[in-house]
Design brief:
Elements lengths: L4 E3 L5 H8 L5 E3 L1 H19 L24 H11 L4 E4 L2 H15 L8 H13 L1 E3 L2 E3 L6 H10 L4 E4 L2 E4 H7 L11 H6 L3 H31 L9 H5 L4 H13 L4 H6 L8 H4 L1 H23 L7 E3 L6 E3 L7 H29 L1 H4 L16 H17 L21 H29 L11 H11 L12 H13 L1 H10 L5
Parallel strand pairs: 1-2
Antiparallel strand pairs: 3-5, 4-6, 6-7, 8-9
Length: 509
């Protein structure tokens, strides 16, 4: 059940996803409102005094030397969202847009940006009433263009979805019971500046990667069971001499997941060691999880920061307008480039485990886990799908942040490119889920070939029984696409984790 999130000093990834994916409601805390009102009063005071402020009483980017009169400050803000609405291509998915709106609220609500509370209230109502601005997702270097498309809707321009229908901004506002709101000084700049879209895209992608990484422990353990692996590689003494915490957590998960497996007990001592795709699960999964957890720390810091430029320092007696570059997306970009690599490493091991199950010369089972191979292809071709997905993932692993194309007449001569690192994480996370789903399909279809007199672990049985309610056993070829989609949806929703934890009566670390 979705919670109501009161925006205040801190938000974590799970608060974020409650709003973005589960459509939880958003409220403003009293402190939030006080911070916003305090910073707005400074903007109004300084505009009246014609104080020099970047993007308020000056132009933008390379035009920062051009003075803007007090009478033109509001027009300047409308112009920025019109001129910056130039991202192109397919629209961002709903979660990416909702996430960006939430990050704008969190960013500007820190109290260092000078926007009116009315503007933020408009965005809050977008989230709470299910109005989603239409925003093309290609062509951002880290900020500006997708956010500008979203900001247009505040004023009744642009386009937005409401109850599944794409409408003009004005009509969408009317349907949602809202009215257009003209922008005032500083507001257009604040709405498009910062790492809000990059952080939002990264947060959605990282959430799914973290969940998939924990699920990979479950599926990896089930593959180990099917392949009658030995548990030497998961011994706590092995972990103690290479004390990476995440490696130890993964090994503990595998031990817990297989603790009461008669298949594993029967296999113990039958060989000295297994193939690397089985015995290296703690090492690779652990390294991937550490990378994702490090990214989480960076993203949660970013979520709770002011990434605007300029910032307004409101300390009494020390008030100031400070132009700098908290809008730089390096932290997000480097974190997500690394996370995409980590997710791809999880995927490449999953594909190798799957290959061992379907290769009759390695598993000892019928080729492609079908009783009559030749007439039937069995699970031959899903591994092709894994191979194709892995190829795409490897392409997406090329770091985005190593690129640099100067913009803005060389005023922005260095650009972090964090947006594309964040955006590709959505595709990488989805492909990881599909690759794990195909491995899990093989685990399920391999069950008839394992000694029926040997009981599977409690965790495995719980997962297999739940899957069995939807996925048929393969006695001859049948339409596999729906089964892959179903298993992927179970990974994406967290159901596999729930079933495994229910079966073993322990949490997966």
């Amino acid at each position: 059940m979705a919670r109501t999130i009161a925006l205040g000093p801190h938000m974590d990834l799970y608060d974020f996803m409650d709003v973005v994916r589960n459509h939880g409601k958003v409220e403003f805390s009293p402190d939030y409102c006080n911070r916003v009102n305090r910073s707005r009063s400074l903007v109004e005071k300084w505009v009246e005094e014609e104080k020099v402020m970047y993007g308020v009483t000056t132009g933008f980017g390379a035009l920062c030397t051009k003075a803007i009169s007090r009478e033109e400050t509001a027009q300047l803000q409308e112009n920025i969202i019109l001129s910056h609405s130039v991202s192109v291509g397919d629209p961002l998915p709903e979660e990416a847009v909702r996430g960006t709106l939430l990050m704008i609220l969190q960013n500007l609500g820190q109290g260092y940006s000078g926007v009116r509370l009315e503007v933020l209230e408009q965005l809050r109502q977008f989230l709470n009433r299910g109005l989603t601005p239409w925003a093309p997702g290609d062509g951002s270097v880290g900020y500006l263009s997708p956010e500008a498309h979203m900001a247009l809707v505040i004023t009744g321009k642009g386009r937005a979805y409401y109850q599944g229908e794409l409408l003009t901004g004005e009509k969408a506002l009317e349907r949602a019971g809202l009215s257009p709101l003209p922008l005032a000084s500083k507001e257009g700049l604040a709405l498009v500046s910062g790492t809000t879209s990059a952080t939002a895209l990264a947060a959605v992608g990282l959430y799914d990667m973290l969940q998939a990484a924990r699920t990979a422990d479950v599926i990896g353990a089930m593959s180990l069971e099917i392949l009658q692996g030995v548990m030497n590689a998961f011994d706590p003494r092995v972990m103690a001499v290479r004390p990476h915490p995440d490696q130890a957590k993964v090994a503990e998960n595998i031990r817990n997941l297989l603790a009461d497996s008669q298949v594993i007990a029967e296999a113990q001592g039958k060989r000295i060691q297994d193939a690397l795709s089985l015995r290296c699960i703690p090492q690779l999964h652990g390294a991937a999880r550490k990378t994702l957890e490090d990214a989480l720390k960076n993203l949660e810091t970013e979520m709770n920061s002011c990434c605007d430029n300029p910032i307004l320092w409101p300390e009494p007696g020390n008030e100031a307008v400070i132009s700098a570059c908290n809008a730089d997306s390096s932290y997000v970009g480097v974190s997500m480039d690394a996370s995409c690599i980590a997710a791809t490493m999880l995927a490449k091991m999953s594909e190798r485990r799957n290959n061992r199950m379907i290769d009759g010369s390695l598993s000892g089972y019928p080729w492609f886990l079908i009783q009559d191979p030749g007439l039937n292809s069995g699970l031959m071709i899903p591994q092709y799908t894994q191979a194709g997905l892995l190829n795409q993932m490897r392409i997406l692993c090329t770091p985005a942040v190593i690129d640099n194309t100067p913009t803005c007449g060389n005023q922005e001569d260095y650009v972090a490119m964090g947006y594309n690192a964040a955006k590709k994480s959505l595709a990488v996370a989805e492909k990881l889920e599909y690759i794990l789903a195909i491995e899990l399909l093989s685990v399920y279809e391999a069950q008839p070939f394992v000694d029926r007199n040997l009981r599977r672990s409690s965790a495995s049985r719980s997962v297999l029984e739940a899957i069995g309610e939807k996925v048929p056993g393969m006695e001859e070829d049948f339409y596999l696409y729906p089964q892959i989609e179903f298993l992927r949806s179970c990974i994406h929703s967290g159901k596999i984790l729930e079933w495994a934890e229910s079966g073993m009566q322990k949490k997966i670390l």
